[in-house]
Amino acid sequence: MTALVDEHPRLGVECVLRELHIPSSTYYRWRRAEKEPCERRRRDVELTERIKEIHADSTGVYGSPRVHAVLKREGTPVGRKRVERLMREADLAGVSPRRKGFTRRDPKATLAPDLVNRDFTAPAPNRLWVTDLTMISTGEGPLWLSAIRDAFSRRVVAWETSARADADLVLTTLEYALASREVEPGKLIHHADHGCQYTSIKLTTRLMRAGVEASMGSVGDSYDNALAENLWMLIKTEGLRGRTFTTRAEVNLALFEYVDGFYNSRRIQERLGFLSPIEFEEKYYAEQATAEPTNLNTRHPLLTS
Question: Which Pfam families has this protein been placed in (predicted)?
Answer without folding.
Answer: HTH_21, rve, rve_2
